[in-house]
Amino acid sequence: MPIGPLPALPKYRTDLVSRRMCRTAQLDPRFAREVLAEYAEDGIRAVGLPVGVNVVAVVRHARQAEARVLRRDRVLAGLLAALLALLVLAGWSLANGQEAVAAVAAAAVPVVLLAALTAVYRELWTSWRIARELGDGAGKAAGQAPPVEPELEQRLELLKRANLVVYHEDVAGVNPFVGSGWRIYEQVWEPINIARPAKDPAGNPLKPVAFDAADIHDQVARWIIKDSGLDGISVRNRLYARGTFLENLPWALPDPTGRPLTVVDSQWVKAGAAGPTTGLETYLCLRLIGDGGRVAVSMHLRAQLTRTSLTWNVNAYVLPPLGPRFDLPDRQVAGPVRLRMRALEDALHATPRLLFGSVGALLGRVADAAARARRLEKTRREIRKNYGTIDYGTTNSLRERASYWPRVEFSERRDSATYFKLMVQAVLDATEHFLAVHHVDTVDLTARQQQQIFTHQTTIFNGAIQNAFVGGAGNVQNNYVAPPGGGSSAGGTNPPGAPSP
Question: What is the value of pTM for the model shown?
Answer without folding.
Answer: 0.87
